Amino acid sequence: MKSLDTSTFASPPLTPPISDEGSPPAAGPKSDNQAVPTYDELPEAVPGFPCSWEYFNTLVTEEGAKDQLGTLNFLSPARVTAARNEIRTGKTVSLNLSLNELAQDMSAFGGRKPPTHEIMAGMPNGREDSVNFNTQVSSHWDGLRHFGFFHHNLFYQGYTPDDLANSNVIGVHSWAERGGIVGRGVLVDYLAWITAKGEDPGVNSGRAISLTDVLAILAFQQTTVQPGDVLIFRTGWMQWYKETAPDIRHDNLCIKHAPGAHAFVGLEASREFVAWLWDNQISAVAGDQPAFEVTPPPAIGTTGWLHEHLLAALGCPMGELWDVELLGEECRKQERYSFFFSSMPLNIPGGVASPLNGTAIF
After folding, report:
1. What's the pLDDT at 45?
2. Quick check: helix, strand or coil at residue 21?
3. pLDDT, tens digit, for every residue of 276-318?
4. What's the pTM?
5. 36-64 pLDDT, tens digit each
6. HEC letters along 292-353
7. Terminal Cα-to-Cα distance of the chain (whole angstroms)
8. 3-state class of 147 per DSSP?
9. How many other C-beta atoms are found inside a 10 Å radius of the C-beta of residue 281?
10. Where are the beta strands (DSSP E) in 161-205?
11. CA nearest neighbour of 250 among 97, 103, 104
């Protein structure tokens, strides 16, 4: 199946990346003669799932080594340098919920335990503290260890559960060691677009945001995506969470629905959408909703979940539960939806996920 014509949002021809000896694998083609394959050209290392593994392995300088970064390879030094042009006013916006923001409703999110925080008085004039938390308990990145293929027991690069148990491969430490996730960010404000149309965003009714919707939103914002961009979606789910009375919210999330039985707004798990992300060399995706992809997701064994296509097949980081309300306000105020983006995942060897630790700079 061919991906949709996205020439309206296509980027200029890519320039060769800048690379330094000893740095992580460079993004983009090694030379003008080595183009990034299109999505339709990627081999299906797992049936039904075009995979980036073979291409990204060609960028690794160590013989026989497998790539650990996935689509973060698209964040070349040249693209990060170009992203500095997004800093014009110096305004900074945090994208992080407090660590305990969702604590009272944790049973709705896979039954994860709420975080605990203990402050200890080591001496009269000093304090230390200890925090115990699930790395996906608040605004976070899903790492490449988080999700593999159903029925195949394989993760990104074909690693097995035994590989993950006996080594630190594809852990979030690789993202931290490369210097974090830094580049040009773009807000895709679905909520503003759907509201302008006079329609209900369907935040708790399983509204699927299609590629057609995404392209319409970008046109509505007059926004063009560029290779290496981090796409951040504002669906309205977090606005609903913050503005709804706690008892009503808890009843909806934790009483009326069992974990995994919710119908949350999110991105449609379509081949067209995944192909568009790859062909535009998007480095990472994120949103303010619980699962990034629409829930309930496709039936297992059919078209595949976005978690399978993005994390396992392409190696594309996925962010969830980001706080984008102030980001939306600042984008509207400045009349632009692009900005400099910086995120530093925790340096946890073999880590599965990480708090976001993210900032937008205008």
Report:
1. 96
2. coil
3. 999 999 999 999 999 999 999 888 878 899 999 999 999 999 9
4. 0.90
5. 999 999 999 999 999 999 999 999 988 88
6. CECCCCCCCCCCCCHHHHHHHHHCCCEEECCCCHHHHHHHHHHCCCEEEEEECCCCCCCCCE
7. 39
8. coil
9. 22
10. 181-189
11. 104
